[in-house]
Amino acid sequence: MNWISRSALVITLIASPALAGEGPFISISIADACAKAKSEDKLVFVDFYTSWCAPCKVMDKTTLADEEVIKWLNENTVALKIDAEKEIKLAKKYRIDSYPTFLFAKPDGEVAGLLFGAHAIKEFLDEAKAIKAGKSPMVRAKEKLISDDENNPHARIDYARSLMRMGKYKEALSAFLWCYDHGNKHSVGFVGVRNSYLITDIVRLGRKYPSALEELRKRRDAARERVITEAPEKPSLWRMFDAANADYPAMDVAALNRELGEEGKTLELYDKMRKEHSDWPAVEQLRRSAFEPLLRKRRYAEIAESTDIEAAVKARIDRQKSMRKHLPKDRLAKFEEMDRRFLIDEIVKYYEVLLGVQDAEAAARLASKTLEIDDSQRTYNLLAWHGYLSGHSVPANVEQARRAFELSNESSAAILDTLVRVLHAQDKSREACELLNAKKNAFEKKQHRAIIKDCIEELGCS
Questions:
Q1: Rounded to two decimals, what is the model's pTM?
Q2: Is 53 considered catalytic here?
Q3: 412-444, pLDDT tens digit by residue?
Q4: Which of 56, 433, 455, 461 is the catalytic position?
Q5: CA–CA distance from 190 to each of 40, 198, 244, 398 (Å)?
Q6: From 240's CA, which of 187, 290, 417, 445 has a CA 20 to 30 Å away?
Q7: Which residues contact 243 (CB under 8 A, 6 or more apart)?
Q8: Is 56 one of the catalytic residues?
Q9: From 34, 53, 179, 455, the catalytic residue
């Protein structure tokens, strides 16, 4: 692949004052970097970042600030730092669609290697040195696959990802599909990866190579046919623990529909099986998987009848506590912050269910438990919002929304939107409109004013 001529490519790195002169990066045009690399027998190194990319900022403060990394890049590359959202043509040329992406290019512009995401210092240097020696991440992934075990689905996924990043979409799809079709036979516990990260990777590939989505739908349809036609066998104790026989077509259907954005099809299958074979295990598997679409359809009674909500929440909290015991101390704080958000997101949905079936007492207990875990403005707002969504909001939702708005220093248009909607749902429309009109001019950002405008129109506040 030849480098784009200077006359056609006038892309100059516009470094912020904070970046100019720092680390290994210099502020010259891409074409000049190419010429410099040729004269000095180096590679061109480009750190593609965006202003909003958190891992990019982590790399800036850690790996790319390391003295050994800086020394290696200075000796072996001409290094540039480029905002991919400003240099769109260049990012498109190299298929840059995740951040950070680190491009190693030969002086003629041909890709020598690509690295994606945050890397620890040693990992970054090992990969960079291998690329300099002529071994791209794809070649290294292939070597690792062969040396480890060609039947190791985890190693094959890494290889497939490298193929995808290098634009070898057909080969990547073949490798991914092998993992989906055969991975369970070769790795204990792979079913969890198979029905989550693996499908996500194939869907991501499908955005560039539509055949990948076609293959997933073929497998979804085949699994659906099995759910409908195969009477359940009573599983033996051995089969329950046998990775090679981890075969649950109902779970496959649900996982594929979720990642394909077609969860409505899971709900359709659940309704069909509930009507025709209510005693089959697949019905319960589908019901659990159809939780989100059932919630959106406000089919609260079906969720409440088949779920001990308070026991489910307790089990989830206990699971969080158990996981804490096995995490290194340096990862504990980050895990707790992230998992607390996930936990709250799960609990407030059950809160909505309880209000939806008008079990106000159980809902109040759950709200108290939720606030014991986290009493931030986000949690108060989520409780109020899901109370509103239930169609059976309670006075406590108004107080929750007021507290959230107070904690935000009355600066959140989204929380104000929640507050006025729960007021309206509690037959306090006049108070809702007065508050909305009194606060609307305090918001200057375009997106905030749009929220307020929509709320005024929907609630009929003049």
A1: 0.67
A2: yes
A3: 999 999 999 999 999 999 999 999 999 988 898
A4: 56
A5: 47, 10, 10, 46
A6: 290
A7: 184, 185, 187, 188, 189, 190, 191
A8: yes
A9: 53
